[in-house]
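Researcher: Good morning. I'm working through a list of sequences from a screen, and I'd like to move beyond sequence-only analysis. For each chain I'm collecting a predicted structure so we can compare shapes side by side. This is the next one on the list. No need for commentary yet; just the structure.
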Amino acid sequence: MNAAVQGKKSIAKLFGLLTIIAGVIFVVAGGVTWGAVASNLKAEQIYVSDDADAFAGQLVDTPWEAFSQAAIINHHAMTATGDRTYAELGAEISTLKDQLTADGASDDEIAENSDVVELTGLRTTVMTASFLRASLFTSVVAFGVAFLVVGLGVVFLIVGWALRSLGISVEGEKAPVAEPVAASV
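Model: Good morning. Structure tokens for this chain:
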């Protein structure tokens, strides 16, 4: 086998080895990330609400349980507010305060107004629900990234194996010899 072909096979084997090493690192890193997210969620002792569509009563330590809990939190918040969002409640509070100010109410009277207090409480409920949902969705994304990294690691392992296979020379392999071409007369 000529030196150029041997050199290319050595390079393929080297790149194959490096790709396999990267694949192993990706698989391990993705697995560790998945485990870290799961254990941190588990430590929070969050259980999926009993009225959730799926995974009711289960400890949240997987992406599907986190997603289910986030969905039911949203349902509870929207039910509590009559399907009004944080922004809608804020607009209602502003309108009410403007109306009370126009009617001559003092700042203390406005702050103690039962409608303002109720709307502010509902707005706080929606805000808290939004924060909780965002945290749960962040864990869902983290699980997804961990899964992606493991998947990439597996692809790297396959590509590395293929590169290494290209670089393996068979014992006694001879370089191809060009057949002489008969001269035509």
